[in-house]
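Input set for joint prediction.
Command: fold jointly, output tokens.
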Amino acid sequence: MDEEDIRKALTAFGLIGLGLVLTGLLQSWNAALGVLNLCLISGVMALGLNIQWGYAGLFNAGVMAFTAVGGMTAVLVSYPPVVEAWQVGAGGLLASVLALVVTALVTGFVYRRLPAGRKRFWLITLVALLGYLVVRSLFGEAVQLIEAVNPARTGFLGGLGLPILFSWLAGGLVAAALAWFIGRISLGLRADYLAIATLGIAEIVISILKNEDWLVRGVKNVTGLPRPVPYEVELQQSDWFASVISWVYSGRLENAADQRAVLAELMIPASSIFVKLCYTGLFATVTLLLLVLANRVAQAPWGRMMRAIRDNEAAAAAMGKDVVARHRQAFIVGSAVIGLAGAMLTTLDGQFTPGGYNPLRYTFLVWVMVIVGGSGHNLGAILGGFIIWFVWVEAEPVSLFVMRQITDLIPMEPASAYHLMASAPHMRHFVMGLVLLLVLRYSPRGVLAEK
Amino acid sequence: MQNRNLLLILAVLIIAGAVYFMTAEQQKKDQDIKMGVILGFTGPIESLTPGMADSAELAFAEVSESGALLGGAKITPLRADSTCVDAAAATAAAERLITSDNVAGIMGADCSGVTTAVANNVAVPNGVVMVSPSATSPALTTIDDKGYFFRTAPSDARQGEVLAAVLKDRGISEVAVTYTNNDYGKGFADAFVAAFEAAGGSVSVTTSHEEGKGDYAAEVGALAASGSDTLVVLGYSDGGGRGIIQASLDADSFQQFAVGDGMISQALIDGISGDLTGLIGTLPGSDAAGAKMFLDLAASKGKDGDGPYRAESYDAAALMMLAMQAGGNAERETVAKNLMAVANAPGTEIFPGELAKGLKILADGGQVNYQGATNVELTDVGEAAGSYKELEVKNNKFETVSIR
Amino acid sequence: MGGFENSLNALVLLANFVLVPALAYGSQLALGAVGVTLIFGILRFANFAHGDTMAFGTMVTIFCTWALQSAGISAGPLPTALLALPVGILATIALVLLTDRFVFRFYRKRRSPPVIYIVASVGVMFMLNGLVRLLIGPDDRKFTDGERFVISAREFKQSTGLAEGLSIQTTQALTIGVAILAVALLFWFLQKTRTGKSMRAFSDNEDLALLCGIDPDRVVRVAWILAAVLAVLAGVLYGLDKSFKPFIYFNLLLPFFAAAILGGIGQPVGAIVGGYIVAFTEVTATYAYKQLAVYLLPSGWVPDGLLQFLSTDYKFAISFIILVLVLLIRPTGIFRGRVL
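tokens >
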């Protein structure tokens, strides 16, 4: 980063900060911190995508899938195990896994022992089909048993019962494993293919998460995940927090007639703010850590090589660089970062809702963040996450306001006025598209351009 | 260089606009009582929510116009988008309503997932009441809501039992089941299948259908192959559920249909080409009177009261305002403390369109038992107790057969 | 019941639940996929805005249909929407030409890499997404009128005396008919007319085509117009057959891509074949063959299960599973399209 870059970054973050402060002053500090926390998570997501797009030029249209597996990992790590489900179903699951392994081994054996030809093809098909039927019946039975365990409350295996913070790391690892698999299929083909393949695979991942109830309850959602930070209601009842608040507001409390009532009144928003600040601290630490790491990597020989490959693949290949392998690395690392962000998001929400993942919000919005912030610029991507999330959240009240002005100013039928007001929330998508197209055209390298 | 200045100017303009807008909004505040309406105006159930919000706003308008609330207070409903699916966006929207617009209570949210997120992360910590008209997931019964979460829609667990009993009583012993693939459909289907099998019936096949896919030929093919004569459809009247019934009618596959509350709507009958006579269904509520009064009320205001969760939305809104009146102020705590009292006996029964009467009784120190459009009766955990109407389609209309 | 009657019943069963729905759905997919593949062949990028373009055209057609209906004009037994179709097509042509002028042309002149086009098409997708909902709202709209059935299941049962019925809806017949007509016209255009030939040349080898004096702007324009026409046809037919909901149209994008890649991207024939394969695989893989077994197997042999390869839960995933398999086994697709 040179001087101008730093100045630009400071200006941009200053403006966002100003926006947040204004939100805090005019709306509320709770709302502002809520936006800030999601800005941080969005920033991490954008950072991950930037490693793929900005450094390697890979069009990953499956951001949603990595976010979702990160979220899934959060459940698997933190939810207490459902002992009864393990008792009834674990044996069956193990048996089906064994059957799968046996099938794979036999198929491999046939493949190696027989000469290529029609006979081998049919034999393999037969073995695979038989194996599939056996695995399916074993698996189906186990799943039925597991899902029958108190279906309204659990009906799944549960998790490991570990602190949810572990899942951030684990979420990254699981996402990396998924990326390795997707990369094997689709890297090495031209960019559009990766885009379409990742878009499709993301849908498959989501439909698995939605339908395999034994894993993470499917569409029935897992709620009430343990938090890494205190609960507001507990804070409101704890003595130490009360003393902190009475110290902070000592001036106001002295003059109050009924000190206890005023204190209780003050503690409600204060506890919310405290919880949000805890999250902010956690997320900001992760974001900064990742930013430093990403910048290190970008300046290391690896980063220079990545950019060389991106800018001229043929030349880099001619120099003896293994283009596909490098692409795979960038893809895996980027996906791991996105998975981590997904785990953080689920942690913040306190619940995992697989039905909630849709490509507009979890894939394409992240794209807008990277393009606006600055492709190939780590800090820029994070900045993009901040800007776009802020606009995405504030677009709704603003468009409602605009529509109200329009319906107030221009005389029109009540029906069409109503229609305009009702369609205000949809302006969000329109505005996002417009911002994306404008930046892509007039400032294609984003707010913070790569040098 | 030029680009950067352009962007800078753009950003300054946006922020200036935001400041202007927020201060303008600020000035509008402070006079009226604010009530939040958080529903998924965008997202998978975006076609259901406008009708729900309209119905809630009918109640708000009725109270404002009556001039009887807390000596003539007016209600300003503020809508916010829960997106139905994006917990983060829903939480942000709720955060804004609660901490910035200072709403006294929230009508919403809609989908069970975001409802849980908003309740746990925003409403309960801030001590704000939420009354959901449509979050029916059994899991919400047991969330730790500290008395701030209510719902006018009963838990699906109960409805599953009722629907199973209706079918058994009609001598139906084998059914095929299809449900919409979300927490509502899945939870409902689990409850129904368990109850039906416990009552000695058999379920030949259970499949899900996705909303927003349009084509349901394959699902109907699989359902029809089960050989059952009766199809139970647990979905939405303007979505996949309707598509499934239409495709089954086209293929002439089932003799009998049974549906859950999400499907009960005149729009279902009007939207389907073919004869639905004999279709049976269950709907929360025990009396046709309140529902009829709500439909008339809505019609007189130029709205359509017929549709999934519209009556529940009206009731949710009405309950919160009656609770304020009962406590004598528009504080958040007041709403929370008095909601159960106005919803349940003892007291004068209040139906849609009679909110002014209810407010007067409360002002005079009397008690009300709000019945509303759906015969509201809250259990001790604050959700609709679940008396159900058994409905049947006759002459292209849903008619109440009995009360359960 | 005789053995012959049993096999007739089995045949009708398959036709009713597999053949007819899959043909109609396949036709709709084929029309959309050809549009995607044409844009790819000429402009060389995967257009993520295609689904929303389709929604836009259908929306205009619906508005026009409502106007016609309130004016009392109808097309007799056929849906009124057919009369409104030209308006929808014209509006959509205007829309795509405008987006090309203001969005894509800029990148074409600068010879930007294809990925930039994709990003731009995502922007267009977002904007159209908002625009359509702004104008018509997010609701589900039915705009089908006219006769509903060519053959209804009940009539079929009564007239043939078979246990199984066969139903063919007007919209299904119409879909298949229009799709065949449109595809035939398209191929005539590509093979026989001068413009069509220059388009094929351009798609095969851009530089060579430019050397031969082919006007690239004209070729691009015609490609957009064709894609718009096909998109509106696909959208309106899909809407007539099922119903119109903006959300559904966005989701259709993925099966389109699957069909186009399966057939070989850039190959119109391939896109059509791909569309039908995706539709047939979706329906056959999730169909439960139990009833068929009841008719065809001796009574003791019929198994208890539903005889389903894959639960309908995963119906939507099938097109992507196909996609992944194609990528693994034969990335050029069936008709050896361009390797992306």
